[in-house]
Amino acid sequence: MASKSMSALAFIGLNVLDAYLTKVALTLGARELNPLAVLFGSDLLLKGLLAAAIVLGLYFWGKMRLLLPLCFGMFGVCLWNLALCLIGGGLIGHGMGNIVSAVGIVAFGLGFAYALLLPLMLCLIYR
């Protein structure tokens, strides 16, 4: 049961992180590509409640095993948003228009995010 609750917390946390990174990316000039996300924006509380509702639905229908693939999917979304934030913020290169720095920042963002989230993902994999 502890591993399922860890997966549930990871899923909710990754959704809140996604909302935060989306909010930052939007302020830096990115566009929201998910038509469903446009409806509720990047509200952290609403995104967290929606993720909790998904977890409860999976629990109710006995599909908790789907949480791990959902966590990996949200992890990829968070990596993408992190790369957009770093590119848009000009932390590497000269903003959104520089393709060379975009490749570098994606590589940097992947390494940075894996270093931060790798312990969490290892807990989920080796439960």
Report what the structure shows:
With 127 residues, the protein is mainly alpha-helical. It has one domain (2-125). 77% of the residues lie in helices and 0% in strands. It is built from 5 helices and no strands. The protein is globular and about 40 Å long. Mean pLDDT is 74; it is low at 92-96.
The strand count comes to 0
Globally, the shape reads: globular
The oligomerization state is single chain
Radius of gyration: 16 Å
Biggest β-sheet strands, sense, barrel: none
Low-confidence stretches: 92-96
> Percentage of helical residues?
over 70%
Total helices: the number is 5
The first-to-last residue Cα distance is 10 Å
Number of domains: 1
Element order: H for helix, E for strand? HHHHH
pLDDT averaged over residues: 74
What would you call the structural class? mainly alpha
Beta-strand residue percentage:
under 5%
SSE arrangement:
Blueprint: H1 2-27, H2 35-40, H3 44-60, H4 67-88, H5 99-125
Helix pairs in contact: 1-3, 1-4, 4-5
Quick structural gist:
The chain has five helices and no strands. It is mainly α and 127 residues long.
Features:
127 residues, mainly alpha, 5 helices, globular
